[in-house]
Automatic annotation (TrEMBL):
PANTHER family: GALACTURONOSYLTRANSFERASE 4-RELATED, HEXOSYLTRANSFERASE GAUT11. Pfam families: Glyco_transf_8. This is Hexosyltransferase. GO terms for molecular function: polygalacturonate 4-alpha-galacturonosyltransferase activity. Its EC number is 2.4.1.-. It comes from the Eukaryota. InterPro entries: GAUT, Glyco_trans_8, Nucleotide-diphossugar_trans. Its main location: Golgi. It is found in: Golgi apparatus membrane. Pathway: Glycan metabolism; pectin biosynthesis. The keyword Metal-binding does not apply. It is a single-pass type II membrane protein. It comes from Solanum bulbocastanum (Wild potato). GO terms for cellular component: Golgi membrane.
Amino acid sequence: MLEKIVFLDDDVVVQKDLTPLFSLDLHGNVNEAVETCPEAFHRYYKNLNFSNPLISSKFDPQACGWAFGMNVFYLIAWRKANITVRYHYWIEQNADRTIWKLGTLPPGLLAFYGMTKILDQRWHVLGLGYDVNVDNRLIESATVIHVNGNMKPWLKLRINSYRPLWERYVNQTHPHLQDCVTH
């Protein structure tokens, strides 16, 4: 039976071997992810409506968020905690969009609350789609870099200094890319 999976978002670049992630001990947690607390907008109160009693009664508004984009999911703990049911519950509760407005992170924050082990930041460096000041040493040492944000390297509106990090992995001669604007 499959015990662990590594989830990778569609806007990440894998720079190093991910194999060691499969031997990490999640200590019974379901999710392992990089914490995003240094950035205030990743605290729970920034993502969720705490005036809703369903949220304010169950969650700490100051709780630290974590990054979707590169996660290790421990499937045995996932099944035991009924994560799929929990996730769908929160999606249904937000049908009127009064708990959160947009995005995939808020229902994940709710479903995995108290079940996420923090991963060292060098595994997953974020912000390359919105932050022009990501430390180059951090980028170079990262296993995965994440172009989260609106300025993707394959778009016209982009952060040009990060473009080579993505472009070196693109086969420009591939037939599916011939009609794309990637230059």
